[in-house]
Design goal:
Chains A, B, C, D: One of its GO terms (cellular component) is cytosol. 4 copies of one chain form a homotetramer. The first copy, chain A, is α+β, with helices and mostly antiparallel strands. In chain A, 28% of the residues lie in helices and 23% in strands. In chain A, a hairpin with a 2-residue loop joins β12 and β13.
Chain lengths: 367, 367, 367, 367
């Protein structure tokens, strides 16, 4: 179960950071949907490191080899498998990991979980690098959705104490939704983005790191999709989003803010607009009872600061059970949330495609 | 899939608010675990309405009939099914629902999802009443866990602008953990609880409602349990917790607060205590890489305000597509988060038992 | 997982033979499909015991109470739960079971599996009585399929050395398909049925039992439904059919007979008939590559003889580990295959509805 | 769902016959189990073609590249992915497939299922070649089981009218179990094997093919493993075995033969042997109520004749809807059952490991 997700669309992710490769199998895609590889590359490149000082200098060539499920430029409907080779791996950087727990990392818990047999190099299966196949799979799902007029975008909404504007929940338009993702730094407001970059750079200079928050929006998702209780859109998105390393919180619409609101403030009045039933406000983030309302779907994902920092940290050698001081060197983003922006979009795309397949079946989506 | 959850422990919830009954099937429980019915009743009564002015006056007799899986005071290991009869249902209260969308409710989305065929009386399958079987199932899981020294408690951490103290993440003790659940009003600090009650009462008096937040803690959960990516403890808990009506956010450990922290602040240093590896702080909420660290597991769940309020609201008749003004009368809690405290504990218990069964199998848990 | 089945339609069966009741939750049904309760009763009555000398004299009142998911004569789309109360249970008949293994029964394996905690009265969760909720669920699925022109029938094709005619694989018509199920004894050929009844009566008189085989056919199932590898129609039907107690074999089309054939004999030539692509013969039983061809779907299920016989049998007391001689008295069908005919139809209906939901989604089936 | 199987161990198979490669992801393996690659190669080579006149002359190099989950000679516990490259593909052989249905093949049903978008070259995802990753996965599962004393073997039990001896159900020893798999032709009796080879050669000479049957046995599987209803060992094995192309029947123990038996013949008397509870006979094939008895597990799988034959066959062009005559040339085994012997062992190994993980958890199997 661990690394397999989904009910109507199944996602199986494999790989370790410094093994031969990482990849994904997507089972249940509708057949005959054209996938534009250049568009897919543009999307996955948004996650790629090395683009600026805010991300790790490790060079990745994340362009995948499609092993199956993709033929003549389109999905075949059978399992789509894609492999991303690992290159430029410097395993000596990680030699301590088999015994010394990096604080905030899964070294110790992974050691217990796998009885010491897991591949620890570069974080192994726990590495943030595993978001590459997730992003790839999500990029494919995004294109399937886009052909049905469903558009997904995300932006960096907070870094440290510094916040971007939020999407306007009730009046989000496509241009605004997509602009941050196409910008050099993924914020709605360029000046706020510049401030965030300074916050990140400051942390990096001080051999530290900083947390961040990503907001994701979806336009064009049809109303009436999703299911009650555990089949809700929130459940599906959250169960995927918590699979992204460093995620510690997920909220929809007004989210935790709604805890402080009154019902009269939080309820979204229904109204008619051009003959369609819409809500005037959108505190619900486009989801009621787990089911889409037709309004923009909105959620936010909170990322903890990158645990790998160069400052000396107190820890233990868990094999020998003795205290130790650790400085984590190597190549690490000072703020994982920056590159996570497209990963969050990917999670949304996969969750929503799963829900759409439940509603329409493969025949409904192939037509 | 909608109302079925789980991989190693399967939970199937059924029922509508005003139908013959609601209930649950739990499949995969270890056999031969004694279940104390009085203890179970005490637990489920914490969710029951009608106990004070802060909850709906509807009288429920939520004591279930065990239909299977329970024999001689213990689990049999085969599916445990329990039925809670619906009584005291006043369906005339809900007659408008088939056409007029209550803002903040699933009336409109349910209408679309089920092509108008779903039972809308009292909210049907979307009713908060469906948390009764979830709580019952969780109460059973709690007892299974308690026999292994795993203890779960929760409290109301916020209502409106009014907040309770938080559990101490690194030094939580069992007495503190359980005290709120046993109190008449589930807060750590009695005076803060009194203030919250006034906030709720104020909202009720003004024909309004208010949101709230619940914090849940777990002590004694063994380290090394859980799985990476989509099998993480966070994924499991969140995918259940978002099945509780009105939940709009879930966060673990420091959660969204970590977005503003530095790595040097958020990382929990490992240390040795009585020969055990522990962390000095517990920003991670007891989970790293989806796997338990052995420290207290901590998460918070945000509830929106009860959408049913008596104030006039703007809405539409979705069958006839015309505007309407609605006043929702009937019996509704002015703050759903209060009674949700044991429901959140239930969700935690089920998710953690699922993870424990993955680790130990039924044989490991029957021994 | 044990008693939960399905991916697109989920079936959760619970109950023990002598507990309060047995039942089923069906999750994923399309909404708004009328279910005719009289037709459903006629179908489930075909499984009911006590109709003639060939079945156990125990009186059952298998008419279920619908607890949820059924409103105004139709499915609501939310989980449909139904409860069948246990009456007329004579638990003293089964007092030996907690220690003495009935040969051919699950007493010993159940004891090991559940560490001695399972409810053994009347076979508990292993009882053939658990086919009642399966049949009920299948009867509902049959009606959903019938509205789309899909018709399912079955007959007793063999008892002891005595065989009925087979359905004509390539030219099966609806009248022939359904006739056995409506007859007092479910065979195509009345005289062969009379012979079978004598074979069964002979076994009963000699305090023995006899095995049997059921053939099931499906007309009107659209071509192109199903999936390769583990999602094939054969996989789905078999994984359900082996859940019927006493089933030891499942085969499709020519089945095991095909082991002895040449490709030139077994391959079904494609041809055109009224502009439709059909096959001239139907050795494949309507399934190629796991996917329907549009020809009649045909499979056979082999049942072992009822293990409960009154003849003295050699066995052991598994608690005290000593040899014992056992005579099983009580009420037992001398040939379980007779009453299993509608159960096999039910399994087919559920498996095929699951596959149809994969193809068309709930929206495609609600339209 | 289609090409993903399992609950406690998850198997995801991908690939098309003439695409870049085929492979498998195994999720849920216990960590730290040594996998001997030479032993694994010996096992998978038993499925490899080109070894004698009875199998297709296509040269395959089925030695996989392990992409993840395998480190330092052992499982890591994280998803194990393996890739088998496709070489020596002669796609021109298959050019007709996009329009002309080969009788007995999935060309037509696949066309309908995937709206004409699936990769048809060499049968695509429906190719028998997809049994290579299944065999590989099963070979790994076999080694995990072997470390616990569980041994699996199979043999060709019938070809055309010509049958091998059966395993002795109650007195099967390891040498007998494994001998056929190690022989040049996988039968228990060498002379009967020689006769079978002549039957196959005769079919081949006549441009035809022939069906066959495989029997599989398992020794050392502990009693009390498996679950009732849909979680039975039979359900698990069958749901996998029907995923092997050309399988049309699966039976356990006496299987369909039991339809003709009396209870007094078919029931296996329990007895004590060296203090252990065993059965004197083993008509049940080691499974009662879906749960292992501790006796040898035995089942048989029926394969239809290879549908690809060189004799002229009547068919249709399904794109143009017109009749056609087809001669299938290219490289095809005249009897798929021969090379399927290790594939059946693989299916058994995977199903039994899934059941063992349910019972013991990953911790129980890592210890």
């Amino acid at each position: 179960m661990p690394s397999i997700w989904g009910n109507y669309l199944k996602l199986s992710i494999f790989g370790e950071s410094h093994g031969p490769g990482i990849g994904v199998v997507l089972d249940g895609l509708p057949a005959g949907v054209p996938i534009d590889r250049e568009e897919l590359e543009r999307f996955t490149q948004r996650r790629a490191p090395g683009k600026n000082r805010n991300s790790t200098p490790r060079k990745e060539n994340d362009w995948p080899e499609f092993l199956s499920g993709y033929w003549n430029g389109a999905t075949t409907g059978t399992p789509l498998a894609a492999l991303i080779r690992n290159h430029d791996t410097q395993s000596k950087d990680y030699s301590q990991m088999q015994a010394v727990a990096r604080p905030g990392h899964a070294d110790f818990t992974g050691f217990l979980r796998y009885a010491g047999a897991n591949d620890v190099r570069g974080g192994g299966h726990f590495s943030g690098r595993l978001t590459a196949p997730l992003t790839l799979a999500g990029g494919i799902a995004k294109q399937v959705l886009a052909r049905r007029g469903i558009v997904i975008g995300a932006h960096l909404v907070q870094v440290g104490g510094c916040a971007d504007l939020l999407y306007d929940p009730a009046n989000l338009d496509e241009e605004t939704l997509l602009r941050p993702g196409n910008a050099p730094f993924p914020t709605l407001d360029e000046r706020l983005g510049a401030r965030m970059q300074r916050v990140i750079e400051q942390a990096r200079m001080e051999q530290d790191s900083v947390g961040g928050m990503v907001e994701c929006g979806v336009l064009g998702f049809p109303p009436g999709i999703g299911s009650p209780m555990f089949g809700g859109l929130e459940n599906r998105i959250a169960s995927l989003a918590f699979g992204i390393p460093a995620v510690k919180g997920v909220e929809f619409g007004d989210g935790f803010l709604a805890c402080a609101l009154r019902g009269s403030q939080n309820n979204d009045p229904f109204t008619l607009k051009d003959g369609q039933i819409v809500t005037e406000t959108n505190h619900a983030g486009g989801i009621l009872g787990g089911i889409s309302t037709g309004m923009p779907i909105l959620f936010r994902v909170g990322f903890k600061p990158t645990p790998s920092i160069s400052l000396p940290q107190k820890t233990v050698n868990f094999r020998e059970k003795r205290p130790e001081t650790l400085e984590v060197h190597g190549r690490h983003d000072p703020c994982v949330a920056v590159r996570a922006v497209p990963v969050v979009e990917a999670a949304a795309a996969l969750a929503l495609l799963d829900a759409l397949l439940e509603a329409q079946g493969y025949q409904g989506m192939q037509a």
